[in-house]
Amino acid sequence: MKKILVTTDLSSSSKAAMRFAIQLASQCDIALTFLHVSHIPRPTTWTEAAYTAHEKSEIGAKREALDHFVEAVYKSRNTDPFDYSCVIKNSPFTDSTILDYATDHDFDYICISTHGAGLLDKLFGTTTSNLINQSKIPVIIVPGHYRSTKLTNVLYASDLTRLDELIRVVDFARPVSAAVRLLHFSEPLEPIIDPDIIRVAVQKQTDYPVAVQLTPRHVVKTLTEDIEGAMNAHKPSVLIMFTTQQEGFFSQLFMSGNSIDYSFLTTVPLLVFSKA
């Protein structure tokens, strides 16, 4: 059974990741764990015993709050709770705590909400961008305004350097019977690629049906705008990308300057795999 670690700070916007994970779990066999990381400070004058008692009490209260928070999200979706658990971790280091917990417990995905639009830090927030740059576990970034809808198709933006990435794309798509479209934008000076050659190469990687779309870059548009146009045309349930974490195609897309418009991501969950 696949396992997803869903992070929440108990804010309204963090419900987006929860809604996405619950929807995904309703379509296939997935166990969910809802994780809330909270720092319980220790006054310097307290003894170890006094702090331990206080910490236990605070964790108990936060666990009760998390339980109610999760139950409310299930109730708002008219969905009966199924295979899930709730975890509270006391730590001032949110990013590393999430990563360590996900790694130690062999999660298949980390799911986190994000807010707004603009530059990478504004769009993703520090925690999310750090997860993208550091996690070897795939990260699902869900825009804060996401509303649950059945997952029916995924758009895989590829630089065509490693078609074996399709194995992981299909591993995500197959359990929910989602259609897969491979999208590649060729650069102006890039040699013309015969789509049939790519289709044959794709068939050697997977028996799952994959549509192939090779499109020249628009000369006056950013790569972001090109992908935005493709998403408007195909309306994917999830956009999938691979990153070498600050290098390569993903870096081109998100680190190419302040003028890039990231607003296209506000309605589409993004699944990021590490190329490593």
From TrEMBL:
Residues 1-143 form the UspA domain. Gene3D superfamilies: 3.40.50.12370. Belongs to the universal stress protein A family. This is Universal stress protein. It comes from Fibrivirga algicola.
